[in-house]
UniProtKB/TrEMBL annotation:
EC number in record: 2.7.13.3
Protein name as catalogued: histidine kinase
KW DNA-binding (keyword) present: no
Gene Ontology biological process terms from the UniProt entry: cellular response to phosphate starvation
A GO MF term: phosphorelay sensor kinase activity
Residues of the full protein shown: 87 to 358 of 358
Organism: Salinimicrobium sediminis
Catalytic activity of the protein: ATP + protein L-histidine = ADP + protein N-phospho-L-histidine
UniProt KW keywords: Kinase, Membrane, Phosphoprotein, Transferase, Transmembrane, Transmembrane helix, Two-component regulatory system
GO-annotated cellular components: plasma membrane
Domain Histidine kinase: 41-260
């Protein structure tokens, strides 16, 4: 009788083990198809700018070089293509680091108001090209937060670049800061641009996901900007929210930890 019970237990164990292995194999299969899809996406992303650069260089070598004006124009376009490649590779590098957990975050106290103003300065020209006004309102100045400054600069930059890219001509991009909880603030980046249809919203943060592929490529997007934003904020244990009305505009907001012992100073003017 003992032996039979033991055999039954053993057979149960074997079955459990086999089921465990089956699940492991399934997980590996999913990961493998994910990896294959990623590789496919990468080569697809790189192909377009590479072929562009190749085309201009070949045309130059075939004789277009002799015309000074054409030479200048083609070299500029080739340089633009190379610049795009550099951006894509940089974004790929970042997403890989984030997904493999190879990115070490600093925890430093810095003034988020100053950081946003710096990003505004850097993007002024880009906004001016579409006559988009950049508006920043905050009742707080300075406002010390605790995070990795360089990475948060990237988050703010990606969100602002998107609001300009997908913002309408003569439109407005607005950044505001509000209190979120005792320990957190929330930064909102909103535009009155094209907006996003509801069904796309849950997928926006997937790498390479775009609502309008040709539109995004034309604007020089890699499709990785929001995936990087989400990963960076998750690594900080912070959250991101999106609200959007198609045809009206979008708002992306994210939380940040206040630096300890920092009383939020209110400058009643409300505008910095
Ligand atoms: P991309 O390089 O294509 O801009 P992102 O990951 O930054 O990649 O964004 C993914 C997609 O989300 C974009 O292609 C665009 O369709 C949509 N999107 C992002 N930000 C906005 C915005 N402010 N307004 C409208 N659509 C947006």
């Amino acid at each position: 009788d003992h032996v039979t019970t033991d055999m039954a237990t053993l057979s149960q164990e074997v079955q459990k083990f086999a089921e465990g292995k089956k699940l492991e194999i399934e997980a590996l299969k999913v990961r493998d198809s994910y990896r294959k899809e990623f590789m496919g996406n990468i080569s697809h992303e790189l192909k377009t700018p590479l072929f562009t650069v190749q085309g201009y260089i070949e045309t130059l070598l075939d004789g277009a070089m002799n015309d000074k004006k054409v030479r200048q124009q083609y070299l500029e376009r080739a340089a633009k293509g190379v610049e795009r490649l550099v951006y894509i590779v940089r974004d790929l590098d970042m997403i890989t680091k984030l997904e493999t957990g190879d990115l070490r975050l600093k925890q430093e106290a810095f003034d988020i108001v100053e950081l946003i103003q710096n990003v505004f300065d850097l993007l002024e020209m880009k906004a001016a090209k579409k006559n988009i006004s950049l508006v920043f309102e905050t009742p707080y100045a300075p406002l010390m937060v605790k995070a990795d400054k360089e990475r948060i600069q990237q988050v703010v930059t990606n969100l602002l670049v998107n609001s300009i890219k997908y913002g309408k001509k003569d439109g407005t991009t607005e950044v505001s800061i509000q209190e979120h909880s005792k320990k957190k603030i929330i930064i909102k980046v909103s535009d009155n641009g094209e907006g996003i249809q509801k069904e796309h919203i849950p997928r926006l943060f997937e790498r390479f996901y775009r609502v309008d592929k040709s539109g995004s490529r034309k604007e020089g997007g890699s499709g990785l900007g929001l995936a990087i934003v989400k990963h960076l904020l998750e690594a900080h244990k912070e959250r991101i929210f999106v609200t959007s009305t198609f045809g009206m505009g979008s708002e992306f907001s994210f939380t940040l930890k206040k630096a300890k012992k920092t009383a939020v100073v209110t400058d009643k003017s409300g505008v910095v």
